[in-house]
Specification:
Elements lengths: L6 H15 L6 H15 L2 H10 L4 H22 L3 H12 L1 E9 L2 H12 L5 H8 L9 E7 L5 H8 L6 E7 L2 E11 L5 H23 L1 H7 L1
Antiparallel strand pairs: 1-2, 1-4, 3-4
Helix pairs in contact: 1-9, 5-9, 9-10
Length: about 220
């Protein structure tokens, strides 16, 4: 759960979640599958046990943690399992990832001139980056990503949504720099099991936040 800076909302999150999973039950088969899943995640069960021992976590405490974690998983699937697919489609445009490069230049006129050189084929993006890039991108240009589109500035999101790998955009002001941008690669997100669980966690976080606002409105005032 994401820390909110104030301990009170975290306490309320846990209280609401504990109430929500209080009636959740699971079978012995589900327990065994979850244990195997955790072992597969750590790859080396013996190493995991040693790490827990060093951290002062007893086997009983770990079993209690597993019990709670499995109940949370089941609660997520019971509540959002049938709608997480449509939620993925809503979020896909923000979850798709991109890799792009930038050339940083301090002089707007030089930036514009170099951009036209690239566009007209007088020089390549890499050549200009090697010869002229400044600041963060000295050398070959600053490569960014993979990064979800939802984490980027609005102009970049608009560019990349309709862009194609290799496409170059005119200099844009970013702080004290003029930046020439090239899209390197688009990495569409896949709705696999890992993404499914990520979205279920996101839905749970949103639900808990809404529950705190509805049931404990004064907590928001304390947080602010």
């Amino acid at each position: 759960m994401t820390s909110l800076g104030n301990p009170l909302p975290e306490v309320l999150y846990r209280l609401i979640l504990d109430q929500a999973i209080a009636t959740v039950e699971y079978s012995a088969t589900e327990w065994q599958k979850f244990r195997q899943y955790l072992q597969a995640e750590t790859c080396q069960p013996g190493l995991r046990q040693e790490g827990l021992r060093q951290e002062g976590v007893t086997a009983e405490q770990f079993e209690d943690w597993m019990d709670r974690a499995l109940k949370i998983r089941k609660f997520q699937h019971q509540r959002w399992g049938k709608t997480v697919n449509s939620y993925f489609l809503q979020r896909k445009s923000q979850l798709d990832q991109v890799i792009f490069s930038r050339i940083y230049l301090s002089d707007p006129e030089i930036a514009q001139e170099l951009y036209f050189r690239i566009i007209e084929g007088e020089a390549t993006f890499t050549e200009v980056a090697l010869a002229f890039s400044q600041g963060e991108a000295v050398g070959e240009g600053s490569q960014v990503g993979p990064i979800p589109l939802g984490q980027l500035e609005a102009p970049l999101v608009q560019w990349f949504h309709g862009g194609r790998p290799g496409q170059i955009w005119a200099p844009m002001r970013m702080g004290r720099w003029m930046v020439i941008t090239r899209l390197e690669e688009i990495l569409p997100v896949r709705f696999d099991e890992s993404m499914r669980q990520t979205l279920l966690n996101e839905l749970l976080e949103n639900w808990l936040a809404d529950q705190v606002k509805q049931r404990f409105p004064s907590a928001r005032e304390i947080e602010d």
